[in-house]
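User
Class, as today's exercise, I want you to study this protein, comparing sequence with structure tokens, and judge whether sequence predicts the tokens.
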Amino acid sequence: MPAYFIAFLMACSPTTNIFAAEPTTLVPAGATQKTLVLRDINPTIDAWSAVNMMSDPKGTLSLEQVIASQSQFAQPKTSANTLGLRKDVVWIRIPLAVSSASDGLWVLDIDYAVLNNIDVYLTQNNQQVQHSLLGNMQAYSKRPITSRSHALGLKLKPNTDYTLYLRVKTVGAMIVPISLSKPSSFHSRALNEQMLQGLMTGLALCLLIYSIAQWFSLGEHLFLKYAILLTGSLMFSLLQFGVGAQYVWTDNVWMELHAGGLSALIAACGSFLFIEQALAGRDRNRYFGVMMKGGACLTMIFAGLYSFDMIDIHIVTAIISTLGMTPALMGMPGAIARARRGDTVGGYFLSAWVVYFVTTAILIGVIKGSIPANFWTLHSFQFGATFDMLVFMRVLGLRTKAMHTEAQIATRERDTLHSMAHTDPLTGLPNRRGLNTTLTNLLPHASPENILAVYMLDLDGFKQVNDQYGHDIGDELLVAVAQRLQANLRSVDLVSRLGGDEFVVMSMGVNNVQQAHDLGKKLLDAFSAPFKLREQICSVGLTIGYALAPQDGHDAISLLKRADAAMYSGKQSGKHCLRRGEASEGLT
């Protein structure tokens, strides 16, 4: 389950949700507010230590009224770079002192991409000298600096004092990591973050493409469900870190407003479907599948309604707060049961959920103002979600391995059944069914230059051996007969047992009639020597009747009948002989 349901509620949605915090407590400003001294030798300066703030509950105050209300500003008591969850408009004041050794070129950077509206006022001696609009509600192409974060270039005069006023209005968490940097330092930091987001986004895209390709090639729906889950996670990261507005939906304010809600709903849908199938088994409640599929359908219906603005963000917030945790909570008993019996899938799910809850708790702390906003806390969510996606990919790998193992078992079982149906269990030779299959396949290739010879063999004296020594010796003799026949034939020739003491030999690629006769004679001669069994020495002979294709027939039935008739004729004429059943003799 991806770690962003609660994040969506608190970071990208109105503060009228179940996690809303009390208004931020202010510490009265001292006699003198700290001034941020800008020196070029310090290329990046965190501005939080110099931040004072004032609430504007109605959002109606002008810059002149704010300047006239200096006594209302106070230090925030929240952790660094976060003001928590707030419903009001907030004014932030930062006094600046530009060193005489500075060239005056600085970049103001507010590195939290989902802040909606930020008015930046630069004043000198309580007079406005610069005003700019920032925030994700501004078209990307109209930003003062087209960067992932909200940035603004400042041209300041050396050895001069200024005051920055920021009017911040947003429907989500008021996280304000404010810094002032030299242009080179700003670009260096921006490049590092771009590299990180490129790696994280590239990894997510690779996983997404791989899962879709596997779904197409294997037809396994679990890969598609993983892709849905991953799509929601990827969309959320693109929004949260500003990459979406920068590259994917540039200048599309609709996406900035809707991407958070849609990503959470899509991810919830994927979680329902993925967890339902991945944890399928005897451990789950019989209604588990129905409830999980129902939850997925509900989230997609709400996503469609939200896309067409038929429901607002408050309803989406209520839906996600209700359904967001359901897949993990419902799947946890099954995962625990699997882990207890040593199934690694259960262990992987539990580890993913532990990381989910830890990273969610960190981000909730940042959003509510109790944990400082810095690189690690702001990215913990993204790192946790990436870990979850890799763990779930491992689950997919185990599922694919299991599918492959099941396919191998099914193939072996099929081959075993096929072998049992086409093989004589005593000698391991093909039986009548196996003979007919092979003969039917070979006949189309028979020609006068490529003769197929079919020999029908019957043992002479086998019944006496069987009656005298018993069935065990008889069976051992039949096995020895099969081995001797194979020893006197080519590897491409086929020996089969029809039953009792009847065998059939097929030889493909005989050049002429004489060669076919010689092969039969060779088989007769091979039975001149007795058989040395474990307890007895036995002698049996052969009577052979044979037919040739295409000379004596073109189908399996007629060839076998002619060979059998010739063999029967030889039996009646004194046994231990070789007879050909030619087509000219006809069949009775």
Observations:
- The chain has 16 helices and 21 strands.
